[in-house]
Design goal:
The complex is a heterodimer of chains A (168) and B (196). Chain A is mainly β. Helices cover 8% and strands 75% of the residues of chain A. Chain A contains 2 helices and 8 strands. An 8-stranded antiparallel barrel of chain A has the order 1-2-3-4-5-6-7-8. In chain A, strand 4 and strand 5 form a beta hairpin. In chain B, 9% of the residues lie in helices and 65% in strands. Chain B contains 2 helices and 12 strands; from the N terminus they run H-H-E-E-E-E-E-E-E-E-E-E-E-E. Chain B has a 12-stranded antiparallel sheet, with no helix packed on it. The longest helix of chain B has 12 residues. Classes of the chains: A mainly beta (168), B mainly beta (196). Chains A and B meet through helix 1, helix 2, strand 4, strand 5 and strand 6 of A and helix 1, helix 2 and strand 9 of B.
Chain lengths: 168, 196
C-alpha cells in the first residue's frame, strides 16, 4: 500500500527540495543547539489540499555526542487563503522518526530509537509556471511514554523550511 | 485509494515502536533543584535528608550548596560534568590541619555504559585518586517509584597519606530528572523514599 501511494504520487505531480532549520526546545535544548535540516518531498495537488511524502535529515551535535534525525513523513497542506497564484496553507504531518545517537568517548558508541512524531504549522506557496516556491513554519511534537513512569515526556522542535518544487 | 486503506496506513504509523532514547539523551542525571529535599532510607543510620539549598560563592567560585543532614556538600554544575568539593582535615597537636582540598570530577556526561572518568589531587605527602565507571543501564524500583534508564556508576576513592592507604567503593544509581535514587557502600545502602 505504501508503494501504491508512492506510485500514485509519482503519477502526478511535484518534486521539492527544502532547506530548513530545527530549533530544539525544553529538554532537547538542554544539550543541543539549532541545526540545519534537508528535505526531499513528493507531493500532489488536489482541490482542497496538497498532500505528499517527504524525507527529512538533520543532526543535532554537541562536543560529546550527535543525534541524527531521519524522518519519513506523510503530510497534508489544506489551503486557507488563495490570492491568484499565492496560497496560505495549514500544515499537518505524521512522521516516523528514526534516531541514531553517537557518543564519542575513547571509543565511539552508537544506539538507535524509533518514535512517532506529530507536526503542525503554517505554510506559504507561490506558483511561478512550473516552479513552486514554498515556506513552512511548524512545530514538531515527539511524545515518549516510558515503561514505568506515569507521566509521558514531550519533546518539541520548531522547524522552518524554505524550498522550491518542480511540477511535472 | 479509498478511505479504509488510508486509515490502515495511518495506523501503521501510529503503532510504530516506542523507545526511550530521548529520555536518556536529554535527561538531567544530577538536577540540583534549589529548595528540594530528598529523603533516603538508610540501613546504617536514620533517614537521611539531602537538602538542595542553592547557589553560593565560596573559594572564589560559584558553587551549589547542599546539606546531607547537617554536613555541607558543594558541587559545581557544568553542562557535561559535576564537580564535587572534597576536603580532608585532621587534628595535629590540637590544631586542625587541612591535608587536601579541591574539586574533583564527580560525574561526567553523557552517561554511557563502560565509560570511565578519573581525577586526582596530589601534593607532596598526600595523594587522592578518584575513579568512576558507568556499569550498565537498567530499570530500577525504589520506594519513591519505578524508573527507566537508570545508570549504575561505581566510584572508587583512594587516599594515600604517608604510609597509610585507605579506599572506599560506592555504587550510585542515577535516574533522569531525579538524580541519585540509590547508593550502596560497605554492605549498606541508601534508597530514595520521598522528595519534598
Amino acid at each position: 500500500m505504501f508503494f501504491t501511494l508512492i506510485f500514485y504520487l509519482f503519477s502526478s505531480t511535484e518534486i521539492g527540495l527544502l532547506l530548513g532549520d530545527q530549533t530544539p526546545f525544553g529538554r532537547l535544548k538542554r544539550y543541543f543547539y539549532p541545526t540545519p535540516s534537508f528535505s526531499l518531498e513528493l507531493s500532489k495537488e488536489s482541490k482542497f489540499s496538497d498532500f505528499g511524502l517527504s524525507f527529512t535529515y538533520s543532526c543535532f551535535k554537541n562536543q560529546y555526542s550527535s543525534l541524527y534525525f531521519l524522518k519519513p513523513q506523510i503530510f497534508f497542506e489544506p489551503s486557507f487563503l488563495t490570492i491568484k497564484n499565492k496560497k496560505g496553507k495549514l500544515f499537518f504531518a505524521l512522521s516516523y522518526l528514526y534516531l541514531i545517537r553517537e557518543v564519542y568517548w575513547e571509543k565511539k558508541t552508537k544506539e538507535s530509537g524509533n518514535y512517532f512524531n506529530y507536526n503542525f504549522g503554517l505554510g506559504y506557496k507561490e506558483k511561478l509556471k512550473k516552479i513552486n516556491f514554498k515556506i513552512r513554519i511548524f512545530l514538531s511534537l515527539i511524545p515518549e511514554r516510558l515503561e514505568f513512569e506515569k507521566e509521558s515526556n514531550f519533546y518539541y522542535l520548531l522547524n522552518s523550511q524554505i524550498g522550491v518544487g518542480y511540477e511535472f | 485509494m479509498n478511505f479504509k486503506k488510508s486509515l490502515l496506513f495511518l495506523f501503521l504509523f501510529i503503532f510504530c515502536q516506542k523507545d526511550s532514547l530521548l529520555n536518556r539523551t536529554t535527561g538531567d542525571y544530577f538536577p540540583l533543584e534549589k529548595g528540594k529535599t530528598y529523603y533516603y532510607y538508610s540501613t546504617l543510620e536514620d533517614t537521611i535528608q539531602f537538602k538542595f539549598v542553592g547557589d553560593t560563592f565560596l573559594f572564589g567560585t560559584n558553587l551549589f550548596y547542599c546539606e546531607r543532614n547537617i554536613e555541607p556538600i558543594f558541587f559545581i554544575k557544568e553542562k557535561f560534568s559535576i564537580k564535587k568539593f572534597v576536603c580532608k582535615e585532621t587534628l595535629i597537636f590540637g590544631e586542625i590541619e587541612t591535608l587536601y582540598k579541591g574539586f574533583i570530577n564527580f560525574l561526567s556526561f553523557p552517561l554511557i555504559e563502560n565509560k570511565e572518568f578519573k581525577d586526582s589531587i596530589i601534593n607532596d605527602t598526600i595523594k587522592f585518586y578518584f575513579l568512576g565507571k558507568v556499569l550498565k543501564r537498567d530499570n530500577l524500583e525504589v520506594p519513591y517509584g519505578k524508573f527507566s534508564d537508570v545508570y549504575s556508576i561505581i566510584i572508587k576513592e583512594k587516599e594515600i597519606i604517608g604510609e597509610n592507604k585507605d579506599s572506599l567503593i560506592y555504587l550510585y544509581y542515577l535516574a533522569p530528572e531525579i538524580g541519585i535514587i540509590k547508593k550502596e557502600y560497605n554492605n549498606h545502602y541508601e534508597i530514595l523514599c520521598r522528595i519534598e
